[in-house]
Amino acid sequence: MTETPVREINHYINGAVTRDETDRRAPVYNPATGAQTGSVALAGADRTRDAISAAHQALPEWQAMTPLRRARVMFRFKALLERDLSRIAESITREHGKVLSDARGEVVRGLEVVEFACGIPHLLKGEHSGNVGSEVDSWSQRHPVGVCAGITPFNFPAMVPMWMFPIAIACGNTFVLKPSEKAPSTPLLLAELLEEAGLPAGVFNVLNGDRESVETLLTDERVGAISFVGSTPIAESIYATGAAHGKRVQALGGAKNHMVVMPDADIEGAADALMGAAYGSAGERCMAISVAVPVGQDTADRLVAALKSRLASLRVGNGLDADEPEMGPLVTRDHRDRVAEYVEIGLREGAELVHDGRNVTVPDHPEGFYMGACLFDRVTTDMRIYNEEIFGPVLSVVRASDFDEAVGIVNRHEFGNGTAIFTRDGDAARTYADAIEAGMVGINVPIPVPMAFYSFGGWKRSRFGVLHAHGPDGVRFYTRLKTITARWPRGVRDDNQFVMPTMR
Fold this sequence. Notes:
Helix content is 38%, strand content 22%. By secondary structure, the protein is of the alpha/beta class. Strands 15-16-17-14-13-19-20 form a seven-stranded mixed beta sheet, with helices on both faces.
């Protein structure tokens, strides 16, 4: 495949592509080929403040617009997303590496949040109570927070931003998006479509940058709310810094998602589910299953055997190939090497490497950032490969003797993002769903990402802040509640007479 020349990637501020006159730039790669395809500007503090200023100046007019008119912009944006779905998906694949069908699925899941935002006139309705006191009425209203910022990761350059900004701007806020510098092109495409949908200049801005721009967003007094998705250490830091500067913060962190497989489960079905959940998108998902917990030695043996047979035929390659593979590359060479180092760590710790994918080759793309699927068995809970988020195609099998031990394994982990159980037993499923300490639970569903009209978020150190992402919690996060209590003076209508006037 012939690569396009290295292109310059800049910002989108106040309704226009904004070139950054700076030497601070970062390379952008096509992970499938290893070739550099872009050079993205890294905004400093001054450029970041430019984006905040644009959002701040656009705020009064946008928040004064009726919710119905804001919803109509979202309706047009939805139609444009559907029109350009293939173009957006291809942009994702070129910079992230996930296969094209997976990228299309990402866009659809983001589009569903836009559909939810189209109902904002209903979602913003308050409550009303007549006669809360003698001739006193009370009601509530939801008002925008103001300028909001989103800091998003490389692994979902379309979906995760669309967890945030459609609801934020539909609620009457303006928005500054700081996407990952590893996959910056897709958010700029979304900005183009918002402009085409009729969104006024300054309401949505895309600022490419690194730590300097993030720190400016966190400390500028004009920014009222920060949304973040990424690793737990950074999520914790963003939450602490943003909160210290008086902002509301929603910070979603890391994960180590477990899938419990009961003895009565359909082992072949569970293995099929695990293949997609563990190795889809090369494991670069915060909702990927990275730990399988089979209950009973026989269950474990059958599950590992089923996985091993499937891994032997797993196809790895360029996600844009006509004969689409099942798994693409990792996002960068450094990240691939980091994941490979975790495999070495697992071997040193004594885990059994059932399938080693480190030496996979893709003949047409020898410089691509490829790594095959890895499967560890007999992993214990004191190992680093169990406790730390690897964020790659590495699945660990931790054997449990019974149901209670499996629940304990899941609940003792510091992360509590998502989890799943595979079983035919309704009682086991119900007990698991009630007892497990995680924000999202799947029953015979390996990746239980909620639909847009519910909210996304984990427990424990997988989330910092009170409210979850999108759905009803998204509306609550991007609005401030105001409650009004009113009494009107009496006697105003006493002079109204409906009889023939006479002299008094």
